[in-house]
What does this fold into?
Amino acid sequence: MKDPQDRTTKYQANSLTLIGAVSLGTGVMIGAGIFALTGQMAQMTGVLFPLAFLSAALIVSFSAYSYVKMSNAFPSAGGIGMYLYKAYGSSLATAFNALLMYFSMVIAQSFLARTFGSYTVQLIEAGDHSILVPGLGVGLLLVAFVINLSGNRLIEGVASFIGFLKISGIILFGVVGVWLADSLAVDFTQPTPESTTTGFLAATALGILAFKGFTTITNSGSELKDPHRNVGRAITISIALCVVIYTLVGLAVASNLSLSEIVATRDYSLAAAAKPALGEYGLWFTVILAMMATAGGIIASIFAVSRMLAMLTEMKLVPHSHFGMPGTIQKHTLVYTVLLGLALTAFFDLTRIAALGIIFYLVMDIAVHWGVLRYLRKEIGARIWVLITAIVLDFVVLAGFVWYKLASDFLVVGVAGAAMVLILVFEGVFLGRRAAAETHAHHDHKSE
It folds into this structure.
């Protein structure tokens, strides 16, 4: 008889190609990074925002080192959840940090969904604060949910097709935007009130959110062809592509809009930059491009994060209930992931969604590097100086971001802190009860 609470995951080996993995990674990265973060970063650090993107790329390059090394050694559909398990075992540290990553990825979905809505309403002149923004985001999440129910082949096909169109389109936008601009008017020496060290560090931290999509690739380890080689290659290719694209588009936006205009249109700055450079057709082109990019990003994000939660469930690090639903554990975690994303999309704005996501991610990222440094360095052949550099850089930008937000939006820091405490307490209680139940079962077995 089939166990109604079966926790076994079912994965299709060799069902994803290298191109498919790169498409999934860049789908999340480009969708979040370019279309919504540009304006928010400009608000934090003024005209230096293109340099903040490059600073974020440098930090992510060090961070990716641990993930490439771990994925080459331990390719798994659990991705970061499995990497934390390898470092810390079946412990509170593993469960806590894995859930931070899970929630940061769900937050990324909501960020993409709200970005989709913010750009789409530009075509119908509904305004930034229209109810249509969350409504359109919710609709997109539901469509992405249906696609993710359809299987890896369709997911890869849709992600690859959208990925090709949006990367080509964004490169075209950047090249044409720079070409038609009166000049590359990015004066990095121009003094502005926003150009402070704290503001630059905060913008750099937010820029990391534009690159963190590479972590979705780690969750395809059990399904990717030749995973010991291709997971690391897919991560490297995705980051390199995004560095080139972000630099080009940052220059295009800064060349066609003033700083005040970029900040005023921060939720849809690329669409605003397209209008003076390319006219009404440019606006339509950019909005449609944004719609494709954010849609592809959500499809990729849901794919990865639901698999990570399924792996945590299989490892008995999080509680699970089928709630009467049929199907495998992956289908159930897919439902939970989308429902949480729908709630965030409906009730949180872009700025606060991004802030929560980067705080959770950086705390988890530091834990990954420390785990590799402390427990796995020799086993996977990682270099000490790279790991230490990654930890220090993460800590510096996290401190800068939190300090900036304490002054500008104390509530979001409080929510992030309270959420982490709740996760820690919840997991501590759950793991304690699990250990007690296992001990009791062991004693009962011995007494028989």
Observations:
- Residues 1-10 have pLDDT under 50 and may be disordered.
